[in-house]
Design brief:
Layout lengths: L1 H34 L1 E7 L5 E6 L3 E6 L5 E8 L2 E8 L9 E8 L2 E7 L3 E7 L4 E9 L1
Parallel strand pairs: 1-9
Antiparallel strand pairs: 1-4, 2-3, 2-5, 5-8, 6-7, 6-9
């Protein structure tokens, strides 16, 4: 009878140890998700254009011409991204892209006369916001 109790206690201990790694793995993936950032890209110009980001992850969207149309690229692995944009057709003469990039607590402005690309960063737990204003 005494050995049956010890065997039962040993079995319970082994089962407990088998469950612990699964709990630990869940905590790790939750931490990885919390460490991800995001990119939020908006078209405020009304002209449709294509936009992409290439870095640790890749994203693409056709911001099809609705005012204030946005794409939420989340989760995004932290790191450096090349963001590019272009019209799927020849842009109207004199078209300017004015871009506001908010990342890491700073705001940067860029102006392009047609398609182009630029570099930005995504930090863990932070959102990089990119606003496109298109003027003709």
């Amino acid at each position: 009878m005494g050995s049956a109790i010890r065997l039962g206690a040993l079995t319970a201990a082994v089962v407990s140890l088998a469950v612990l790694p699964a709990v630990g793995a869940g905590a790790t993936s939750s931490s990885a998700e919390e460490a991800a950032g995001a990119m939020f890209v908006c078209n405020h110009g009304g002209y449709g254009f294509d936009v992409y980001a290439d870095g640790p992850d890749s994203f693409t969207d056709d911001l099809a011409g609705s005012f204030n149309e946005c794409a939420n690229w989340a989760p995004a692995t932290p790191g450096t991204y090349q963001v590019g944009f272009s019209f799927p057709y020849a842009p109207p003469a004199g078209t300017l892209f004015q871009i506001r990039i908010k990342a890491d607590g700073t705001t940067t402005y860029r102006t392009f006369n047609g398609q182009g690309n630029f570099t930005t960063n995504v930090r863990p737990g932070r959102t990089t916001r990119i606003d496109f204003y298109i003027h003709k």
